[in-house]
Amino acid sequence: MSSFPVLLVEDKDSLRVMLRRALEVQGHTVLEAHDEAEAVEHLRRSRPAVVLTDLRLPAGDGLGVLRAARELDPELQVIVMTAYGSVQDAVTAMKEGAMDFLAKPVDPDHLVLMVERAIAQRRMLAEYLLLKEELAARRGAPRIIGEDPQLRQVSQQLHRAAGTDATVLLQGESGTGKELFARALHALGPRADGPFVAINCAAIPETLLETELFGHEKGAFTGAVGRKPGRFEMAHRGTLFLDEIGELPQALQAKILRALEEKRFERVGGTVSLHVDTRVVAATNRNLKASVAARQFREDLYFRLSVFPITIPPLRDRTGDIPILARHFVERFCRDLNKPTLKLSPAAIDELCAYRWPGNVRELQNSIERAVILCDGDTIHTRHLNLSFAAPRAAARGDGPAGTTTDRAGAAGAPGLPPAASPDPWEQIDLSGTMSDALRRVIAAVERRKVEWAMREAAGHKERAAEALQISYKALLQKLREHGVVAN
């Protein structure tokens, strides 16, 4: 039997049985559906490689099946069947992404040939992507870890965009790994041998950002003792990654737009128009459409940046990838710290999967790094995780060395008994290891809580939070990254 199932969507029993038998004779596995709802359920459960659907269905229609298939997997091959005289419907389906169409009455031999061609195309695409990833890995492309369908769809979009020079806009919450995806996009494309130049538009003061992006001429301003190339020049024949593009000052947006459209700009203080061949990838954790509506971001720049938008799902929406990522980080940090490879206890995995991960993959990475440092045995337990926004846990642990049980209702007390006494705050502090180890953990915890407090008090406004903490803006950004604090 073929490992590539075919989803057959047809409401007429006699025709469906005939087509199923014709396909099964050739060794294909066939999934059957009578209407759109049943077809969508098969699409989600079974992930077929080819869909064969009638356009006219008793509930829903073939176009609905086509759209659901394309939404689930843009590479899924869909063949539509239509009655004689409904060619216009078939043309509409082709425009929406159908691979081909068959006119009824269907010739079974023609159908089998078309399905086998679709499966061959699917197989060739899979082999092409594998070869491309292997080549990118040899060039040092970052690995994207995870098996969630949403992440696979993002990966497919990434591969499709990589072979072009289209401007890509990566959208997603802070900590989802937008720079990782940008580097993968660069490594998978034809510019992989060129430079990858990144700049964080939020981390550089507005007065210096123009110089950083476009460079300056000697004498352009006080202290400009020589000519300096900007990031656009440095990324010539490569990729320029504009991180946090939503923080770009409005005064610079027009110049960025011109550089994107004309690939020309002038250095600060210069009069010569410079030409660069640069592919631009931008990223943001903001809702740029809302910023456009609020007149904080130029509409024409937004449309120029979002030629190929890709949205990266937050970690809480792909919980199945959490154990995979956690084990990957455990192996990596054990290797970096020259420690034997540690295991994650079942309770620790449960707690990781139950946590909401406001800081996404970055917060998970930081949490695992801390756990690997704190763990002095061969297994990481829940007490090593120290999740920032987790609900307080009872003092007794269900995965401790002695195998004690956890009473999560202990704080409230059993019926008829007085409430349990408030725990001693010193009991919550991990004092294991050396004096410097304990101090480092306490200082890190205080820093994280203080930064979280400042961001809440400033309603997410980074400049005000930095002022309240009496640290520089750049130092605050470093603390946010270090502790996996989400800047809303």
How would you describe this structure to a colleague?
This protein is α/β, with parallel strands linked by helices. It contains 18 helices and 14 strands. The chain folds into three domains: 6-126, Rossmann fold (3-Layer(aba) Sandwich); 149-313, Rossmann fold (3-Layer(aba) Sandwich); 317-410 and 429-483, Helicase, Ruva Protein, domain 3. The strands form four sheets. A five-stranded parallel β-sheet has the order 2-1-3-4-5, sandwiched between helices. It has a five-stranded parallel β-sheet with strand order 7-8-11-6-12. The chain has a two-stranded antiparallel ribbon with strand order 9-10. β1 (6-9), α1 (13-25) and β2 (30-33) form a beta-alpha-beta unit. The model is unreliable at 392-398 and 400-422 (pLDDT under 50).
Fold blueprint:
Blueprint: E1 6-9, H1 13-25, E2 30-33, H2 36-46, E3 50-54, H3 62-72, E4 77-82, H4 87-95, E5 100-103, H5 108-138, H6 149-162, E6 168-171, H7 178-188, E7 196-200, H8 206-214, H9 231-234, E8 239-243, H10 250-262, E9 264-265, E10 274-275, E11 279-284, H11 288-293, H12 299-305, E12 308-311, H13 322-336, E13 343-344, H14 346-354, H15 360-374, E14 379-380, H16 435-457, H17 462-469, H18 473-483
Parallel strand pairs: 1-2, 1-3, 3-4, 4-5, 6-11, 6-12, 7-8, 8-11, 13-14
Antiparallel strand pairs: 9-10
Helix pairs in contact: 1-5, 2-3, 6-7, 10-12, 13-15, 16-17, 16-18, 17-18
